[in-house]
Amino acid sequence: MTLYSRIIGTGSYLPEKVLTNRDLEKLVDTSDEWIYSRTGIRQRHVAADHENASDLALNASRRALDAAGLTPQDIDLIIVATTTADMIFPSTACLLQAKLGIRNCPAFDMQAVCSGFVYALATADQLMKSGQYRNALVVGAEVYSRILDWTDRSTCVLFGDGAGAVVLTTSDHPGILASRLHADGSYAHILSVPGGVSRGEISGRPLLQMEGNAVYKFAVKVLSEVAEETLRAAGLAKSDVDWLIPHQANVRIIQSTAKKLGLGMDRVVVTVQRHANTSAASVPLALDEAVRDGRVRAGQNVLLEGVGGGFTWGAVLVRW
Ligand code: ACO
User: Which atom in ligand 1 lies closest to the alpha carbon of residue 249?
Assistant: First the structure.
């Protein structure tokens, strides 16, 4: 019998505080018109001072567990995709495990920047297919507001905070049909947070920097390539995709990707206007929205895609 992993519950969480483009006009020399016309973003959520990635992850996880009809005790594998971990260690996944009140199951973080959730989901799928785990919790959680230079208008307008989670269970029918992951470290310089901790001090500059145009071109190219590769691996055609849920960085990247794939925007889930780019949280946040509002339905093919710093990129094709 072939073993698959299936998503049986989704959840998400956005911090209460909303920062609109108009609010940003008071911080840097920008305008709602510039931000919206270049990116499609109108607003983003920002975590409160006391909220860390593990807190956002906890709220999203509880909602995903409720949707799945499971309790934390049913979970035997936790993967948290994040670039904005609460601390250097323990991992955010271990902190989340403790907050969920469970023990002993493996818990680890996945660091693949904006592709993190897709990397984590593909990894969980492979581990579950081994038959060793029954129910996994896979989370994307980020507090990008902590790694932005709030005086740099070219980057601070693009990002937001949030978390999304899914619960996976093993099943004899799919489930996750195929996944493909890639990375090319030679592009590290076009998007990075080039700082670290050394001998008790911060070394380098621990704030996000980006070559916007280079990132844009790279993202459009690899998102369409990896979509086609993943569909081929599952023996499906582009026309079989019911919903494309790509990383939410910029609506123009999303539109160009959909066009290259021959998909109308009526088959693409877009949340970037309200969330901005929440990095590893963006795909599960968009997925949860489309599941809860009834767009994603049983039997449909859903293509999840990530692209981000590293550079990293990948896709997971799911039969709902
Ligand atoms: N408000 C007003 N003006 C601005 C702002 C701002 N917030 N930011 C930059 N500008 C100015 C620049 O200074 C420049 O001015 P100049 O011509 O006087 O020098 C002008 O606008 C044009 O700048 P460009 O960078 O050429 O603008 P562009 O049209 O390329 O848009 C953007 C920039 C939105 C960043 C675009 O390149 C982009 O979306 N890139 C993708 C980046 C992305 O989404 N990254 C997310 C992380 S990666 C990922 O998730 C895949």
Answer: 44
Q: What is the atom index within ligand 1 of the atom nearest the CA of 307?
A: 51
Give CA–CA dist 274/19, Å, rounded: 10
Entry pTM: 0.97
Task: Tell the residue nearest (CA) to atom 33 of ligand 1.
Answer: 212
Task: Encode pLDDT of 58-113 as tens digits.
Answer: 999 999 999 999 999 999 999 999 999 999 999 999 999 999 999 999 999 999 99
Say yes or no: CB of residue 158 within 6 Å of ligand 1: yes
Integer Cα distance of 136 and 285 in angstroms = 18
Q: Which of 21, 52, 250, 277 is catalytic?
A: 277
Q: Is 156 in the pocket of ligand 1 (CB under 6 A)?
A: no
Reported confidence tier of residue 1, pLDDT bands at 50, 70, 90: confident
Contact between 285 and 116 under an 8 Å Cβ cutoff? The reply is no
Burial of 26 (C-beta count, 10 Å sphere; 0-12/13-18/19+): exposed
Of the candidates 165, 132, 174, which has an alpha carbon nearest to the alpha carbon of residue 13? Answer: 165
Question: Is 189 a catalytic site residue?
Answer: no
> Dihedral angle at the C-alpha atoms of 57, 180, 68, 100, nearest 10 degrees?
-30
Sign of the C-alpha dihedral computed for residues 115, 265, 317 and 245 taken in this order: positive
| CA distances from residue 199 to 193, 195, 279, 295 in whole angstroms, order as listed | 19, 13, 29, 51
312 CA to middle of ligand 1, Å? 21
Q: Is 247 a catalytic residue?
A: yes
